[in-house]
Specification:
two-stranded parallel sheet; about 375 residues; mainly alpha; two-stranded antiparallel sheet; globular; 15 helices
């Protein structure tokens, strides 16, 4: 098999063009920037008090830096800027979509960071999330309902879009309660989205953004795998959830039946199942699902069954990858592209875990006990 035929088999129509190279370099640059930036962010965060302090809800015995989201955001932003320099013509075609997603993500990074350090009312955070979702709608990024007929479809399109964006944003944040979980799931989801979107020219914006998010999430995971050295905080979780939710509906998604969204939902199978079962259980017990802390997330259930944090993360990574493979198949990705993506995800995760474990062995003092608290 020649290089050109292999590239065509995984969905790259122009192997000699700069488009696919820009995607690869965007991923690599986001990965490197995030990985190198996190130690400096961690040192500064601990110095100025940007950390989760021990309290009655948390079992950690020392402050833990919670500003990892700033490094993730910086890595993605730097990578997108690099992509613009490498392939300005390609980026020019999707500037509005990329800028809209990055603007909304930037707002949520600020809100999440303030909430991490000082606390913000839940209603205020929800309002900002709704506004950033509406920003996408205004810029033409939305789920299109084609079922009942105008004008009802237009209203439903906006409602479903806002519900999807806000729901996934909070689902990723709710899932961020165990070392390596949110970062690993976000990496796998971004890679699956990248592979699916790369098959279609109309989803160029999603492809570039997913490359940056995947690289940044992997760079963060190198420091966040158990035992973690830093947490992403609400700033990172909001940003990853929002950007992934937004990119998942790029490309003119149309809802014509009740099953139209299944491929997109499968990309987020772990956060969707986790959040859904938590909300249902808390509602049935008469508690507010958004403000009531508890040990009822999927990772808590795995830990209660005797699995370690590392094994629990691996199990949920596996479920996420399975969902991503199903989603890629349902969205029409080529078989070779699915196989290469799955193998690539597995190898990158194995390499990241191996490097982290080797660093722990070589520098035992760098190991930091995990955060066992819930993040409802």
């Amino acid at each position: 098999m020649t290089f050109e035929s292999f590239m065509n088999s995984i969905g790259i129509a122009d192997p000699h063009g700069r488009g696919w190279l820009a995607v690869v370099l965007t991923f690599m640059f986001a990965w490197i920037v995030t990985y190198l930036f996190i130690p400096k962010v961690r040192t500064f965060a601990l110095k100025v008090g940007w950390a989760d302090e021990p309290n009655a809800r948390r079992l950690n015995q020392e402050p833990r830096a919670n500003a990892g989201g700033l490094a993730i955001y910086t890595g993605v932003l730097a990578a997108i800027i690099l992509a613009g320099c490498l392939s300005p013509i390609v980026l020019a075609k999707v500037q509005v979509a990329i800028l809209a997603i990055l603007l909304g993500g930037s707002i949520l990074v600020i809100v999440g960071f303030i909430d991490d350090q000082f606390g913000l009312p839940a209603l205020f955070r929800l309002l900002i999330q709704i506004l950033t979702a509406l920003l996408l709608v205004v810029c033409g990024i939305q789920i299109h309902v084609i079922y009942f007929g105008a004008p009802i479809d237009g209203i439903l399109s906006v409602i479903i879009t806002v519900f999807w964006i806000v729901g996934i944003t909070n689902a990723v944040n709710l899932m961020d309660g165990m070392d390596g979980l949110a970062g690993g799931v976000s990496f796998i989801t971004a890679m699956s989205l990248l592979a699916a979107s790369a098959q279609f020219e109309t989803r160029a914006a999603a492809t570039l953004i997913c490359a940056g998010v995947a690289g940044a999430a992997l760079g963060f995971l190198r420091h966040n795998y158990h035992p973690s050295r830093i947490f992403m905080g609400d700033a990172g979780a909001y940003f990853l959830g929002y950007v992934l939710a937004a990119t998942s509906i790029l490309g003119n998604i149309k809802v014509t039946t009740g099953t139209s969204l299944i491929p997109t939902i499968m990309l987020f199978v772990v956060p969707v199942i986790d959040t859904s079962q938590v909300i249902i259980k808390r509602l049935l017990s008469g508690h507010n699902p958004l403000s009531t802390p508890g040990k009822d997330h999927l990772h808590h259930r795995l830990l209660a069954q005797g699995f370690s944090q590392r094994h629990s993360a691996a199990i949920l990574w596996g479920v996420t990858l399975a969902g991503g493979i199903i989603a890629m198949q349902m969205q029409g990705a080529k078989q070779m592209a699915i196989v290469v993506t799955a193998i690539g995800i597995a190898l990158l995760l194995i390499m990241t875990v191996w490097l982290r474990l080797r660093a722990i062995v070589n520098s035992p003092d760098s190991s930091i006990p995990p955060r066992p608290d819930d993040n409802p």
